[in-house]
Amino acid sequence: MGTAPTTRDEVPADVIGLSDLVVTTESSDPVVILRGVSLTVRAGELVGLVGESGSGKSTVALAIADLLPEGVVRASGSVRVNGEALDALPAKRRGALLGRKVALVLQDPSASLNPVRRIGPQMIEVLRFHFGVSRAEALRLAADRLREVGIDDPGRVLASYPDMLSGGMKQRVVIAMGLLAGPEVVIADEPTTALDVRVQASVLDLLVRLNSEKDVAILLVSHNIVAVGEYCDRVIVMYAGTIVESLAAADLMASARHPYTRALIGSVPSLETPTQAELPTIPGSPPDPGDVLAGCPFEPRCPLARARCATELPRRIALDESHTVACWAVEEELAQHPVRLEPSC
Ligand SMILES: Nc1ncnc2c1ncn2[C@@H]1O[C@H](COP(=O)(O)OP(=O)(O)O)[C@@H](O)[C@H]1O
Ligand code: SF4
Ligand SMILES: [Mg+2]
Question: How far is it, in rounded angstroms, from Cα 138 to Cα 272?
Fold first, then answer.
């Protein structure tokens, strides 16, 4: 990761902090989308957020950026950006904080670009609006950022309309645009899913390079746990709107304990998997967001489920200072050993 070396006592500050975040639909009978999510992203850290489709990853990303869709609300819990609770800020200051500190990169770069405007005017808007930079200076800075993301001919790109660029180029433009305000963190929500497979690795490599060279923290949202394990410092696993495990990426393959994490790892085809072989999947499907869950949400699909799993939600325990897990089977296995509760995220 890109964090400068610290002494034993110096822990990098949190740039993102979610505490017990509950997000629901806004109705008389609300659907619970996030069921109490706590996580942190520290300065300069590269964190992967993984889980199957529907587990709540995008909702986490949008909640941090204060961009929850119409009809979806934060019911309780808090979001902190650079140590400031979003709730405590008036709308204008909240917008300014997020505009400066957080860059959001979405799956489909076209969604972040206005198709009827050239790239140049779109890119420089943030500098003109948040920083009062002159047009000429803003264009110079935009060209610099485009070069940083590997675009050799920024003049041509600044003069182009989005549809004149490939998907990979558009995603680079969106990332460059996000970098203009000098953010502390880039939240990249499945940034390569919509791209040609040949350019996917180069966009991921770019994010890793930004992290290591510019010390920008990255929250990389993905459904591919193996790729995230390779690129990130830390992996957070979500299931049905909850965090089930969080651990150092280096420990993922050997030390992941949650049955869902293990199943996710097992469902990713390896290089040895014959191309004609049927891809492994996790049997069953995740609960619907409308389901009322008394116990562990993974219980109907879990090979290790026991009686209490159907009725009691497992608590998140710390196995060591960088590894947390929420699972009764793991907890029972550890019953003979002291376990530190109420971990950091
Ligand atoms: N606007 C919405 N209204 C109702 N349910 C929603 C809305 N947005 C997302 N959801 C539900 O919340 C769950 C989590 O969605 P999402 O955060 O997009 O998951 P992921 O990004 O992991 O695929 C899904 O089951 C989805 O159907
Ligand atoms: S709490 Fe129970 S059902 Fe849930 S993952 Fe652990 S063993 Fe399986
Ligand atoms: Mg998503």
Answer: 49
What's the confidence (pLDDT) of residue 3?
A: 47
**Alpha helices by DSSP H, 40-134:** 57-64, 91-101, 119-131
Ligand closest to Cα of 260 equals 2
Taking the C-alpha atoms of residue 260 and residue 128, their distance in angstroms, rounded to an integer, is 46
For residue 270, pLDDT over 80 is answered with no
Query: Taking residues 128-154, what's their average pLDDT?
Result: 91
263 lines ligand 2 (CB under 6 A): no
Residue 309 Cβ contacting ligand 2 at under 6 Å = yes
Tell me the three state secondary structure of residue 219. strand
Q: Which ligand is nearest to the CA of 245?
A: 2
Q: How far is the CA of 57 from the centre of ligand 1 (A)?
A: 8
Q: Which of 21, 37, 59 to mutate to test the pocket of ligand 1 (most atoms within 8 A of CB)?
A: 59
Residue 206 phi, psi dihedral angles, 5° rounding: -60, -45
**Helix, strand or coil, per DSSP, at residue 41:** strand
Residues 6+ apart with CB under 8 A from 85: 78, 79
The side-by-side arrangement of strands in the sheet containing 72-81 is 32-42, 14-25, 72-81, 84-85
Degrees to nearest 5, angle at CA 128 with 126 and 129: 65
Q: What tokens does 121 get?
A: 């005017």
In one-letter notation, the amino acid at residue 100 is R
* Interval 272-301: pLDDT, tens: 655 566 656 788 889 887 787 889 999 999
Backbone angles phi, psi at 78, to 5 degrees: -135, 155
Measured between alpha carbons, how far is 128 from 215 in angstroms, rounded to an integer?
24
This prediction's pTM: 0.91
Q: Report the pLDDT averaged over residues 226-234.
A: 93
Q: Is 72 in the pocket of ligand 1 (CB under 6 A)?
A: yes
- In sequence order, the 6+-apart residues with CB closer than 8 A to the CB of 191 are 105, 106, 107, 171, 175, 203, 204, 207, 220
> Can you tell me which atom of ligand 1 is nearest the CA of 71?
1
